[in-house]
Design goal:
Its EC number is 5.1.3.13. Homodimer. By secondary structure, this protein is mainly beta. It contains two helices and eleven strands; from the N terminus they run E-E-E-E-H-E-E-E-E-E-E-E-H. The protein has a domain of about 130 residues: Jelly Rolls. Helices cover about 5% and strands about 40% of the residues. The strands form two sheets. Strands 1, 2, 5, 6, 7, 8, 9, 10 and 11 form a nine-stranded antiparallel beta sheet that branches. Strands 3-4 form a two-stranded antiparallel sheet. Strand 3 and strand 4 form a beta hairpin. The radius of gyration is 16 Å and the shape is globular. The relative contact order is 0.25.
């Protein structure tokens, strides 16, 4: 397994070891001790979420506060441009983003820590994405920011996105009151009991 730091502190790219033979490919998508030791991911995962999306679908940008979720993102089929945005109001990297292509062929993963918004856009005709989450989905804690916020200025892949009505109505970062956003101290907490 190889772990790469990104320009956005806390966000990691992880390349698991792939075992290829005449039958296909085998990989360990998650092994708690190895990921703790080699990537520093020690929060427990309590929910796995799978999304299947068609061509051009853009999901995001979503986060929760309270009940912050860290997400380990893996593409099971197809490819996406995966994005994390630092939403911690007291972070020096507040409002900065990082994006990378994740695809089923390489099994590259992205670790999106608690306190970061997450989203992706499908590259190609479809994608099946698995995210391991450090807290359960809590609709009452859901926050989002517009995918096309000019202050964040994400360089999404070409083409008009297919959006849900909910994602189409998300506010710009400048329109979200800072006191409603997570702080750096909130980001390391595990699931709420």
């Amino acid at each position: 397994m190889k772990v790469f730091e990104t320009p956005l502190p806390g966000v990691l790219l992880i390349e698991p070891r792939l075992f290829r033979d005449s039958r296909g490919v085998l990989l360990e998508a998650w092994q708690a001790e190895r990921y703790r030791r080699e990537a520093g991911i020690s929060l427990p995962f309590v929910q796995d979420t799978v999304s299947r999306s068609g061509a051009g679908v853009l999901r995001g940008l979503h986060l929760q506060h309270p009940r912050a979720q860290g997400k380990l993102v893996l593409v099971l089929s197809g490819a996406v441009f995966d994005v994390a945005v630092d939403m911690r109001s007291d972070s020096p990297a507040f409002g900065r983003w990082f994006g990378a292509t994740l695809d089923a062929d390489t099994a590259r993963q992205m670790w999106v820590p608690p306190g970061f918004a997450h989203g992706f856009k499908v590259i190609g005709d479809h994608a099946v994405v698995l995210y391991k989450c450090t807290d359960v989905y809590a609709p009452e804690a859901e926050i989002g920011v517009a995918w096309d916020d000019p202050d964040i200025a994400i360089f999404w892949p070409e083409g008009a996105p297919v959006l849900s009505e909910k994602d189409r109505r998300l506010p710009r970062l400048a329109d979200i009151p800072r006191h409603t956003l997570p702080r750096m101290a909130d980001a390391g907490r595990g699931p709420v009991a």
